[in-house]
Amino acid sequence: MKKWYSVIGDPIAQSMSPSMHGTWFEENEVNASYIPIHVPVDQLEQAVTGLRTLGCSGWNVTVPHKTAIIPFLDRLDQSAEHMQAVNTVHVLPDGSLVGSNTDGSGFVRSLEEVYGDRAKGNPVLVVGAGGAARGIGHALHSMGYGPITFTNRTMEKAEKLATGIPGSSVLSIQEAEASLTDFGLVVQTTSVGMSFALEGMPLDPSGVKQGTVVADIIYNPLETEFLKHAKEQGALTMNGVGMFVHQGALAFETWTGIQPDTEKMTQKITTTLGG
Ligand code: ATR
Known about the structure:
The protein is of the alpha/beta class. It has two domains: 3-101 and 242-272, Leucine Dehydrogenase, chain A, domain 1 (Rossmann fold); 104-239, 3-Layer(aba) Sandwich (Rossmann fold), CATH 3.40.50.720. Helices cover 37% and strands 18% of the residues. The protein is built from ten helices and twelve strands. The strands form two sheets. A six-stranded mixed beta sheet has the order 2-1-3-5-6-4. The chain starts with a strand and ends with a helix. The structure holds 2'-monophosphoadenosine-5'-diphosphate. 2'-monophosphoadenosine-5'-diphosphate binds next to helix 5.
């Protein structure tokens, strides 16, 4: 029987996941559909019950449900447990719902697809201390990157995050700007740069040294002001398209056991976004 998968969020119309997973199902001759569903905050529990009842085989979870969905699942894997956030739900043959989080490992995979292990063995600066920073921080640490330093507008949030990741530390934005040459990898995880409402940079990257890998998890615009400035200093830059594609690929693998073509998809999405 044809299977179906989904993504739930609010808003959901802008999601590129349906087109990405639809393409991968086709390319891999998997008989399945992937349907976006708009789920407002106050209907999350009913939505999970509905997905379960209607035989959905798995779904992605996006803003604002990543943490709120946890009580409605049967268990979490280690990634979701660490991050206290879920972006992928897998329905096991016995009907139980397992939550995982592929955002952080998606970032590390995309980094390695582009730059191999060039950034390994160097101190890492993570800009931001929200959900995305937590996922990426845990994934980098568990993949042997670091030591990791967090910097954030609100220092207390960076301090709290750093206590959960062994060997990590914090700097104020000003301190981080003044010591950028110490880092071999800089990862921008805040929402600053994403839109006109949030234009600008969370930190001035003028001090990065040539050859530093500088990543921004934003993919629309393809080149944020932060990345543009870092590139002008001779940094090796990477936008967020690869992370988006790899978090999806890891979900796809969880559901189907198949590794989809991520390079072709990264190209396709970059072209769609005007690159
Ligand atoms: P996400 O899950 O996308 O990480 P989040 O948990 O709301 O979202 O975290 C947003 C991050 O962007 C935080 O690091 C936040 O900084 P604060 O902790 O100080 O709020 C950062 N951020 C958002 N708007 C910002 C702005 N205008 N200037 C600087 N940092 C900002």
